[in-house]
Q: What sequence folds into this?
DNA sequence: CGGATGCTTGAAGCTGCTCAAGTGAAGTGG
DNA sequence: CCACTTCACTTGAGCAGCTTCAAGCATCCG
């Protein structure tokens, strides 16, 4: 099932409000942006959705047309390897960006699956290209955004040891959810155990076991998808391999 | 020891020749580049080196000043984790790029260590930024290059199983070395077993053992750093987990 | 209530790690 | 030229962590 992108232009002031939490914010309101540019930029950004759970924002092989920012919900990006196994690249939460995977070549190489009812902002890529022609700091901004996403991706794979990766994941997700309004150390996981396990490159069973172990050590509370970080400090130490 | 960057401008024709094998080639000679732009671009790119083995092109924390293309030799980029362990991010061979790690924030977050005597091309980043102001397709090119590097990085971590990762590494290095003039299936590894092991996230002992096993299976020949892929096809299958 | 789904828990086995010894090539000094 | 050292790599044995296979629970939904 493919979600249909019902886009509609946004009112400027409304957009400014809505985007205060958003990663695109840095792109939308870079310093020194003139009112005229702002208006042109605003005319580029469209809202799309809501998309139902189980639908796709884009799929492997789709042509690259836009960069997206998640306004609400959660999106999983994953690919399927030669053996048919699902490999989860990452999760995109409220305020976060996706779509950069396809800048070169101009084709998405992963699937973006809606995990929770979701609406997004859409920036058509070729509009960016066009607008950048006479407003080139926009391109620099995009470069920085991509670079930062890049750096984020590299954060995992660092930790050896399943416990370390799980701790890092929990701390990471928690702080990202907190940025967009969740309580500081309490949240609802938007994804299944299987998705998390695939993302962390461990088996779902090991994930389950180690979550129980962390609970036994009074570092977290877990009940199905509800999680509370009881001892965030020790958890962070664990995540950095300094336990 | 920090290598001193003795840069010197290049003659245009010479550059064109020298760069035919190089990844910057796509940046230097994008379609539709006018002679005047070409000259300005040419004035940006400088050659630096040779750098001796054991010196650094840049180190963690250095300010981001330029993007580099390897003209000869081999560079290892790595960081050191909280526990003092070396984590190898990648190897940069002749014709390949590095330095993108620092686009945001404008600070290198890894060390670039010379593994084999090495000379590079240097593109000062702020020159790119300046030139892009009136020649914006340059920025698009850079975006594409970064995006491609990004995609390359993600290729690892995919394979579970040490054998799979080793096979993928051998095939990968071999094809990269082949692109810049090595025989198709025979090459000299520019890095130590320890570096490879760190890069693949396995122990040096396991690497050694599994190399021996691959030799036993007549898939490769190994003698110290000299490697020949005896059965590249089966090796590629192994690398993709389809054995 | 019965079935499906998603999560947890248990037991056995394998992969890869650690510690430790052995080998071979290159370099050093007599 | 030949011991002697050194360094990088190889090989071996035992162990730990994670996976797999399999069963047991809880929640959701018909």
A:
């Amino acid at each position: 099932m493919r979600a249909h992108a019902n886009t509609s232009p946004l009112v400027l002031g409304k957009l400014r409000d809505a985007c205060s939490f958003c990663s695109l914010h840095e792109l939308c309101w870079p310093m020194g942006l003139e009112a005229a540019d702002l208006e042109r930029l605003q005319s580029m950004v469209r809202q799309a959705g809501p998309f139902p759970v189980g639908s796709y924002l884009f799929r492997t092989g789709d042509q690259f047309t836009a960069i997206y920012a998640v306004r609400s919900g959660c999106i999983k990006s994953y690919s399927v390897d030669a053996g048919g196994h699902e490999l989860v690249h990452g999760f995109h939460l409220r305020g976060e960006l996706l779509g950069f995977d396809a800048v070169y070549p101009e084709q998405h190489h992963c699937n973006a699956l809606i995990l929770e009812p979701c609406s997004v902002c859409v920036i058509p890529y070729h509009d960016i290209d066009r607008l950048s022609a006479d407003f080139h700091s926009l391109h620099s901004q995009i470069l920085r955004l991509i670079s930062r996403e890049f750096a984020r991706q590299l954060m995992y794979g660092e930790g050896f040891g399943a416990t370390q990766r799980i701790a890092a994941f929990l701390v990471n997700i928690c702080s990202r959810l907190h940025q967009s309004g969740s309580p500081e150390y309490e949240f609802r996981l938007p994804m299944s155990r299987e998705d998390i396990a695939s993302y962390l490159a461990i088996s779902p069973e090991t994930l389950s076991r180690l979550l129980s172990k962390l609970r036994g050590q009074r570092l977290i509370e877990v009940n199905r998808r509800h999680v509370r970080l009881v001892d965030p400090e020790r958890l962070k130490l664990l995540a950095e391999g300094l336990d």
Remarks:
- Residues 162-239 of chain B form a domain with the Arc Repressor Mutant, subunit A fold (CATH 1.10.10.10).
- The first strand of chain B starts at residue 8 and ends at 9.
- The CA atoms of residues 129 and 136 of chain B lie 9 Å apart.
- Chain B has two domains: 8-154, 162-239.
